[in-house]
Amino acid sequence: PPDSRAARHPGTVYSGRVTPAGIEAGAKFSQIAAQSGRTPGQLAFLWCKDQPGITAPIFGPRTLDQLKDILPALELSLSEEERLACDQINPPGSVIANFHNSAGWMKMQVP
Question: How far apart are CA 91 and CA 22, in angstroms?
């Protein structure tokens, strides 16, 4: 999107994180959200919130509109069908992009 970090900061780590696989996953995720009558942000929050073992999902809205979008999801739950559809896009234990492993300290070998 035009207001995304990748679009606002071309040629940086943000734009380098955008991959064809990530774009495809985002499109599929957005379809699931639309089918359920939710925004992608709400669905993403619910997917995190309703994972086993998660007691306090953390979200960081950049704008007031983003906060207003997420707040209704605090009172909602993800259906099993929605969770399974999301898990098909990004199965538990898998990744779509490897940018989380790019920091030097994450590659350090611990004795």
Answer: 14
- Residue 57 near residue 45, CB atoms below 8 Å: yes
Contact at 8 Å (CB) between 85 and 11? Answer: no
pLDDT of residue 111: 43
Give residue 3's identity as a one-letter amino acid code.
D
Round to whole Å and give the CA distance between 14 and 16. 5
Please report which residue ranges of 2-110 form alpha helices under DSSP H: 5-8, 13-16, 20-35, 40-49, 64-70, 80-89
DSSP secondary structure of 49-72: HTSTT-SS-----SSHHHHHHHGG
Half-sphere exposure for 30 (CA within 13 Å, toward CB): 7
Q: Is the pTM higher than 0.85?
A: no
Quote the percentage of the chain above a pLDDT of 90.
47
